[in-house]
UniProtKB/TrEMBL annotation:
<dbReference type="InterPro" id="IPR032675">
    <property type="entry name" value="LRR_dom_sf"/>
</dbReference>
<protein>
    <submittedName>
        <fullName>F-box domain-containing protein</fullName>
    </submittedName>
</protein>
């Protein structure tokens, strides 16, 4: 039999509010049957009820006391929170952030903008996000024109509605209105603009497979009219959307005097109906300030008004070539530092070697070559525009190249390795597509060879290919395994690379896979990443059947809500690398 007593004393605050000693004798006359399976008699049941009367009364009092204490605790917590908020509101006045001068805060604002692209007209980033923090920040953001001078524009369709419940909402008009607000807030600051036409994107459809026909519109697009009104502020302008005939005519009217600050101009492919005006010389490109051009279209439409000797960067993606002096203007580009050329096939009578025979580019440091069919599905044969001898001649004369992008789709792994041996000073490399297996003729729809990296893995007693390689980027991978990729990176990073004197440590690797992820490579390389190694791998999500994607001003950015990729959606997923990537 147990003889226990509980003494409960309750105090709150500095003063004794309750001092009650409850002594409960724990002796029980039912010790022999308690906590057993014995069935008590009727008499024992009556005795148990009588015995529990006092404990039940005490329990009820304790429940009441607990509720009182809880209410007291809630009241105390509420008072504490109110006092804490009162103190915090005053402490905030002492925050160093409040004493940062406006000019310094404006510089901080500028550092919040996207690093590698322009700012989308969306409330979730850029100046619109800053302006939502507080009144002071809003006023300061609105008075900082540099925040509003970099725009990533997704031009919506006129019939697109934000919400089906809102009938006939003119999203295009709202977009133009927002664009005009940004242009006004940007004051006289030079503009960096890239425009993309919104399309109801369908997964796995390549946007550049077919040149979209020119839209027959009688009036210049309202968004382009707004941009033309401030053409004197253009600095870096990119039209990645297909323009209407009226839009093209409006651009043709611009002269060099209209764009005195223009440094970079990019125009995507367009087509003109047969019999239409082919005099598409963009007079605005004769401005002496121009330093960079990217052109996607027909050879006949290449702007001829450019002061080629001023260019430091040139990117050409041509859909058709003609016999009349192909690329003869290259010999005038004596200041060129970065060159990218994408050619589809050999025109009649053209000899590849003679095309570059008299071209001397003494300042060239980055070369991008895409010299064969691009994104065609049927009837493809091995391209002959730039055969092995031509590439050998090019690279042999440019052994000082430190940055190189080269298509591997029409080459075998051994051929790619042979070309890489010709550029021993290479520091940055971009591989476009994957090589063709040795036993297979070139055809896009065939399997790819995923073994190329085996030749670049560091092995004792073997030749080190590209010993100075620090940055490697690879696009559109299908066959390369995650295991082989892991072996390559480990061999080129610490601690293994330290065993190969004269071999640089790989600093970054990025790749876009057209398949699902099979191995968490980043987890396996946690140590290398902690030491500064940069890894950017993008894998295709399992997305099911094709589906339409909604309009978003963030389309094409890493924050695209409809992206079909794990991690950031690749910039320029389907377009060859522009040489500016290798600055």
């Amino acid at each position: 039999m147990r003889n226990l007593s509980d003494s409960i004393t309750i105090e709150t605050g500095p003063h004794l509010l309750l001092s009650t000693s409850i002594v409960l004798g724990m002796e029980t006359p039912f010790q022999e049957i308690i906590n057993t399976n014995i069935v008590p008699s009727e008499e024992q049941c009556d005795n148990i009820r009588v015995f529990l009367a006092r404990p039940c009364s005490i329990l009820a009092k304790l429940d009441v006391e607990i509720e009182r204490i809880r209410e007291l605790l809630d009241t105390t917590v509420q008072k504490r929170d109110e006092l804490d908020q009162f103190i915090a509101s005053h402490t905030a006045l002492l925050s160093p952030m409040r004493r940062i001068p406006d000019d310094i805060l404006q510089l901080i604002f500028l550092e919040t903008l996207p690093e590698h692209r322009n700012t989308a007209l969306d409330a979730r980033e850029g100046p619109l996000l800053l302006a939502s923090v507080c009144h002071h920040w809003r006023v300061l953001a609105f008075s900082t024109p540099q925040l509003w001078s970099r725009m990533h524009l997704i031009v919506p369709l006129a019939s697109t509605a934000v919400n089906p419940a809102i009938e006939k909402l003119d999203l295009k008009a709202a977009f133009v209105s927002e664009l005009q607000c940004w242009l006004e807030r940007g004051a006289i600051v030079p503009l960096n603009i890239d425009t993309h036409k919104y399309h109801e994107r369908i997964l796995f459809v390549h946007p550049d497979e077919v040149i979209a026909p020119v839209i027959a519109e009688n009036a210049t697009s309202s968004y382009l009219s707004a941009l033309l009104a401030v053409s004197n502020r253009w600095r870096n302008v990119r039209f990645s959307c297909h323009l209407s005939l009226a839009d093209i005519e409006a651009l043709l009217k611009l002269t060099a005097n209209d764009v005195p600050q223009l440094e970079h101009f990019e125009l995507s492919s367009f087509s003109v109906p047969s019999g239409g005006n082919r005099d598409l010389q963009l007079k605005l490109l004769s401005t002496p300030s121009l330093r960079s051009i990217a052109f996607y279209g027909l050879f006949a439409d290449i702007p001829r008004t450019v002061q080629w000797q001023n260019l430091v960067e040139l990117h050409l993606q041509l859909d058709h070539l003609f016999d009349d002096g192909p690329l003869s203007f290259l010999s005038q580009c004596t200041s060129l530092e970065r060159l990218s050329i994408v050619l589809p096939s050999t025109p009649t009578g053209m000899h590849p070697q003679s095309t570059f025979e008299d071209v001397v580019l003494p300042s060239l440091t980055a070369l991008v070559l895409c010299l064969g069919p691009h994104w065609q599905a049927n009837g493809i044969t091995r391209p002959n525009l730039f055969d092995d001898d031509t590439i050998t001649a090019l690279l042999g004369a440019m052994g000082h190249i430190k940055c190189l992008s080269i298509p591997t789709l029409a080459l075998t792994s051994d051929e790619v390795v042979a070309f890489l041996r010709m550029v021993p000073l290479l520091e940055r490399l971009r591989l476009v597509e994957e090589p063709t297996p040795d036993d297979q003729e070139y055809a896009y729809e065939h399997h790819r060879d995923g073994r190329l990296l085996r030749h670049l893995i560091l092995l004792r007693g073997s030749e080190v290919i590209c010993p100075l390689l620090q940055h490697l980027e690879w696009t559109s991978i299908n066959a390369l395994s995650d295991d082989l990729l892991l072996q390559f990176i480990r061999s080129r990073t610490l601690p293994l690379v330290a065993s190969y004197p004269g071999t640089a440590q790989l600093a970054s690797f990025s790749a876009h896979f057209n398949r699902e992820q099979l191995l968490d490579v980043s987890d396996q390389l946690a140590d290398a990443i902690s030491r500064g190694f940069q890894l950017d791998l993008t894998y295709l999500l399992s997305s099911g059947p094709p589906r339409s994607l909604k309009y978003s001003p963030l389309q094409g950015t890493e924050h695209d809500p409809e992206a079909i990729w794990i991690s950031a959606q690749p910039r320029e997923r389907f377009r060859p690398l522009a040489p500016s990537k290798y600055r």
